[in-house]
Amino acid sequence: RFYEAVKSRRFQPTSVVRITADCPLVVPNEVLDIIRVFNRSNVDYVSNSHPVCHVAHGFDIEMFSVAALERAYRDAKTAHEREHVTPYMYYNMKTLSVGIGGGWERFAYLGLPIACQCENGPHPNLSIDYQEDYDRVKDIFCACVEKHGWTFTQQHVLDYLWGKKNARRGTADV
Questions:
Q1: Using CA of residue 84, residue 130, residue 32, residue 96, what is the dihedral sign?
Q2: How many whole angstroms separate alpha carbon 159 and alpha carbon 21?
Q3: pTM of the predicted model, to two decimals?
Q4: 103 Cβ partners below 8 Å, 6+ apart?
Q5: 140 vs 2, 91, 108, CA distance in Å?
Q6: Cis before residue 24, ω within 30 degrees of 0?
Q7: Within 13 Å, how many C-alpha atoms sit on residue 107's CB side?
Q8: Given 7, 25, 70, 138, which residue has the most CB atoms within 10 angstroms?
Q9: What confidence tens digit (pLDDT) does each residue in 42-64 have?
Q10: Is residue 79 packed enough to be buried (19+ CB in 10 Å), middle (13-18) or exposed (0-12)?
Q11: Of 53, 57, 55, 54, nearest to 20 (Cα)?
């Protein structure tokens, strides 16, 4: 799909930013950070979540060259590689996994579903796959927009969740 979409456009892009629909908490400043890193690096693929995750699942951002997309389209063999677009890239090409954002290691104490166990601790699942995911993310989104406006960050989400956990525990000193 991505390959056909890129090739069908009259504008000939040289790179693609990929944000999936199940990740509605991605915020513009972090997308711009990924773009800056990609443009300064000599790599085919940059991500904050693959092959090493640096953020909670739901903040995933990927950027890759059209040349990498063409190579993956041509050379990917497994059903997983063909369906999910980028696994072929991050396992077979020059990649950079960047730690934009941070503080997610504290999520071990928040009692949220864990998406992955990463080098800097467990990361929660803040993507939307089921109704309960939608309800949780909607609450987070609304609270962050109310407090910080439309330009809230990952840190605002973390602070909100951390504060919510502390309120339940009756302590602000964790």
A1: negative
A2: 24
A3: 0.75
A4: 154, 155, 158
A5: 30, 33, 18
A6: no
A7: 27
A8: 25
A9: 788 888 776 666 677 788 888 88
A10: exposed
A11: 57
